[in-house]
Automatic annotation (TrEMBL):
This is UbiH/UbiF/VisC/COQ6 family ubiquinone biosynthesis hydroxylase. It holds the Pfam family FAD_binding_3. Its cofactor is FAD. Keywords: FAD, Flavoprotein, Monooxygenase, Oxidoreductase, Ubiquinone. It comes from Salinisphaera aquimarina. Belongs to the UbiH/COQ6 family. Pathway: Cofactor biosynthesis; ubiquinone biosynthesis. The keyword Glycoprotein does not apply. Residues 9-339 form the FAD-binding domain.
Amino acid sequence: MSRAGAPRYDVAVVGGGMVGAVLAVALEQTGFAVALIEAKQPGRFDAQADYDLRLSAIAPGPRRVLANLGLWETVERTRACAFTGMKVWDAGGHAELFLEHTAIGLPELGHIVENELVVDTAWQTLGSVDVFCPAMLADLEIEPDRACLRLDDDSVITAALVVGAEGANSPVRGFAGIETTGWAYGQRCTVGAVTPEKHHRHIAWQRFTETGPVAFLPLSDGRCSLAWHADEALADELKALDHDAFCARLTEASGGVLGKIEKMDTRAAFPLKLLHAKRYCDHRIALAGDAAHVLHPMAGQGVNLGLLDVAELVGALEAGREAGRDAGDLTYLKRYQRARMAENLLMMGATDALKRVYGSRLPWLRQLREQAIASAAGLAPVRQLMIHHAVGLAADGPRLLR
């Protein structure tokens, strides 16, 4: 691969979605020379348009990462909806678990935000980052002192470190030969904005059924973002329903918690899977976000884990620089891997277990589910522990989380 005249960067980030774009901003603000490679130029966010189908529940910890980078103020001002409570219950029982912000002294448990808004805000803040777009990674070679990236227009750039942040089908991960483990869940998640009879009261609602959970996330205009996780057979049934029949089916599946579902705007469905990279780094290689881990979305933690990856990776690279090492030094990349792999595996294991327990029709598991919810609901310390873990705050975490 010819490198004549090729620019040299500290970090080349492949993938300009939420995690990749935020990472590029963070690295640039920390003083690293950064290249960002993205296949498609993201559109400008239009606050007058209807809600996008892709939304995330941003927890306080990852929100702090965005705030420390100067991104959150724009996101919150443009369009974001805070939620102050979360109600969880089992369709097969009577116990309910309600988690609220007052349990840990926070003004909210999180915010519902459109992914494209975060992406647009980050792209408008890239500063001195060199952006290669539209561009795709065509080849990657790792040498002792650099990573050499050939793009699809045959141009070549070099960097001390290349970060794969381009999603579950990461080309960087493939070129690096990093294997993954995982499986398909045999479920699809139907998403879209719904208009319920009752106001959501800034609460996130999730009802567990034997075919998958039904969740309503509050939107700032009073509607809710639906996330209906359904086994393939049910997903096929739902896809075939017309508007009125779908709304009636959703009202039934949600237990009428917000009254009748009066309207369902554009809906779409995507398959669910679990994927985990066997390692997050190699010599001059690192993975972040969905390139490293994909989990069942019932807990809404996918993007949050990716933003926590950003905070930890930037912290590790800063520490390496202070020690006189370049950004591709494996010692400090492994520090990032140790910190994030354990946390990500814990969350992935928890969501996978929840999916399997709540997807079972065994009577004894139904009783166990009911008892677990009742016990958690009755013990304030348990509720506080659950909330603390969910919000992603840590006093001893990396700089971007403080």
